[in-house]
Amino acid sequence: MDCPQRRLECLQHPQVKAAAQCDGATLIWPFGACEQHGPHLPLITDALFADRILDAVLTRLSKDDPIWRLPVQNLGYSPEHSDFPGTLSLPPELLIQIVESIGAQVAGMGFRRLLLFNAHGGQIALLQVAARQLRRRCPSLAVLPCFLWSGVPGLSTLLPAVEIEQGLHAGQAETSLMLHLAPELVGDERPVEGMASSGGWAAPPPGWSLEGAAPCAWLTADLSVSGVIGDSRDASSALGESLKEKLVEHWHGLLEALLDSDWPPRSSPSAS
What we know:
The protein has helices spanning 13-20, 45-60, 92-109, 124-137, 161-166, 172-181, 220-223, 237-259; strands at 26-31, 67-69, 113-118, 142-147, 192-193, 230-231. By secondary structure, the protein is an alpha/beta fold. It has a single domain (13-259), classed as Creatininase (Rossmann fold). Strand 1, helix 2 (45-60) and strand 2 (67-69) form a beta-alpha-beta unit.
């Protein structure tokens, strides 16, 4: 277990009380899912990424920084993958209730910031809704719903444009990162499916896409027999190492900036 001093569950309750009373006390809650990732990646892929990348980021922060983490949330909202064995999906209202309940409790302890550090693309919008609900319920708590892969600079130098745009699930990026972080969990197959270039689905009308500015509510079984949406053939551990470094560098910078700030102000005006 990395960073035991950063893990809230490894502290005694007097230590938790002292932690929550620190100026700018910040808590990070990693989110993943238990869902199919093709014939070659494990169900725990997203949860493992959130867990490992977060620990790598925390090791780079100063030991004096008032930041701690919760255990990873392994079960998430994954209805798009429910046609494939192994996928376990919580009802959306239940996941929102979980976030609200736990968030209200940590706010009651005195923590000022809660980051929802999510690695599953299928629950980005849902966690944003949960964050807004929690923020309304607990005005003293800043809630930041984050997505692992969002806004990370330099990915276009490592991945082809078609994979960035269409490699949504178990493609080159995820396969490479898993080959670096946990190669023992990766199977031998390297599927390519679910992309317009692979014949898996007809290209949508101009301006429309699976995700982006004009998305559609897709289900994986509509696009793929294997469960893969992307091209994993050029995946490698070396690429995974480079991707990890980009991710860690990005989130380390964001967390440092947050910890160095006094945001949010304790007497911020109420939302209208």
